[in-house]
Specification:
Layout (H helix, E strand, L loop, with lengths): L3 E9 L18 H16 L8 E10 L7 H14 L1 E12 L6 H9 L4 E7 L3 H7 L5 H13 L5 E7 L6 H12 L5 E6 L7 H6 L2 H4 L5 H17 L3 E4 L2 E3 L6 H7 L4 E4 L4 E4 L2 E4 L4 H7 L3 H6 L6 H12 L6 E2 H8 L3 H14 L3 E3 L3 E4 L1 H5 L1 H6 L4
Parallel strand pairs: 1-2, 1-9, 2-3, 3-4, 4-5, 5-6
Antiparallel strand pairs: 6-8, 7-8, 10-11, 12-14, 13-14
Helix pairs in contact: 1-2, 1-11, 6-9
Bound molecules: iron/sulfur cluster (SF4).
Length: about 375
């Protein structure tokens, strides 16, 4: 039987401290709480036993939170359970997210032994004042130490997360951050703009009149975005998604699954899955999650298949984030209908205004289209 490719996401919802801007599902926790959570995770993975060998897992991503905060022994138990339950492809991309200040040589060596071949390091800024503003637990020197240690332990495929639009950040300090990081030659750089999320300390600090003045203006933010794309492109990184840049062949295969609607299963608190045309998210409350975990797959089977129109819209919203855009053939294969029959008119309209480029095979946003992407994507609602 031909096995279906599958991505696996594992959520580790623990951090040393909460950063001021963060609304991810993560919080500090002691060793007992961490072990209790991992026990639930193991049960949740086990619940997929009836179908595990139908798949060939080809990407794994441990994210959070800060996966590197928990002991490598616990990480090892999760990896072993995944291998017990699922069949794996020979060429797996296995990523673990780590934060500077939580890594040492022993941990890195054990990650390599467990089969991880890609690290994602949260830096955000090379400027210590900006790191303090964000409430990060590390300074730039700690990041560089972690980065060099990772390279020494054999990790050639490293992503560095960066953030523009930080309060007090200037074009000059952003340029310096980019230059400092590029000098280390990581394989991949993710560069996102800060979003002020509701109910975070940043929301209360930076949505007042006085607070707003400390944020870069929208025009400065756009200028930083454009500079990032131009500079990283000059330095040999290809932008393959709105905010992601990679050396040739080092694009994140796992994240591409999200943007191209390939199947993945998310394990852990609040984790989302997309499987067999169904979308599902785990409970976001810890007690509810722990209760749900042993029967997670049974619960997933009960989910309704998504309405085809919602799936088509999602295909466009996600696929147009990729700079290569969407393939009409993929659309036809997924939905059994010609792309032009559904979206031909809207595409023609935006090709004429210069917001989209299209040919026989592909449709993609132009730079002009990316600048107003929310407005363009809204037109793909059916
Ligand atoms: S390290 Fe990441 S997940 Fe943890 S609090 Fe900071 S931003 Fe949130």
């Amino acid at each position: 039987m031909l096995k279906r490719p599958l991505g696996i996401y594992v959520h580790i919802p623990f951090c040393v401290e909460k950063c001021g801007y963060c609304d991810f599902l993560s919080a500090p926790a002691g060793a007992d709480e961490q072990s209790r959570y991992v026990r639930a995770l193991l049960k949740e993975i086990r619940s997929y036993e009836p179908v595990g060998d139908q798949f060939a897992v080809d990407t794994v991503f441990f994210g959070g939170g800060t996966p590197s905060i928990i002991s490598p022994t616990l990480i090892g138990k999760i990896v072993d359970r995944l291998h017990d339950v699922f069949a794996f492809d020979d060429e797996v991309e296995a990523t673990i997210e780590c934060n500077p200040g939580t890594l040492d040589e022993k941990k890195l060596k054990s990650y390599a032994k467990l089969g991880f071949n890609r690290l994602s390091l949260g830096l955000q800024s090379a400027n210590d004042r900006e790191l303090r503003t964000l409430g990060r637990i590390h300074d730039y020197a700690a990041f560089e130490e972690s980065y060099r240690l990772a390279r020494k332990c054999g990790f050639a495929n490293v992503n560095v997360d960066l953030m523009s639009g930080i309060p007090g950040q200037t074009m000059d300090s952003w340029r310096q951050t980019l230059e400092t990081v590029v000098a280390l030659q990581p394989a991949h750089i993710s560069a996102y703009s800060l979003i002020i999320e509701e109910d975070t300390p940043f929301y209360y600090r930076y949505t007042t009149e006085a607070g707003k003045k400390l944020l870069p203006t929208e025009a400065e933010d756009r200028a930083m975005y454009r500079y990032t794309n131009d500079y990283l492109s000059d330095m040999g990184y290809r932008r393959y998604e709105f905010s992601n840049h990679a050396r040739r062949g080092k694009e994140s295969r796992h994240n591409i699954k999200y943007w191209t609607m390939q199947e993945y299963v998310g394990f852990g608190l609040g984790a989302a899955s997309y499987l067999g045309g169904k979308r599902f998210s785990n409970p976001r409350d810890m007690e509810e999650y722990i209760e749900h975990a042993p029967n997670a797959y049974a619960g997933f089977r009960m989910q309704p298949v998504r309405l085809i129109k919602r799936s088509m819209e999602e295909f466009m919203f996600l696929g147009l984030r990729m700079t290569d855009g969407i393939l009409k053939e993929d659309f036809a294969e997924l939905f059994g209908v010609r792309f032009d029959t559904v979206y031909g008119k809207v595409v023609d309209r935006f090709v004429q205004t210069g917001h989209l480029e299209a040919d026989e095979d592909r449709v993609r946003l132009t730079d002009k289209g990316i600048d107003v992407s929310n407005r363009i994507l809204a037109e793909f609602l059916l």
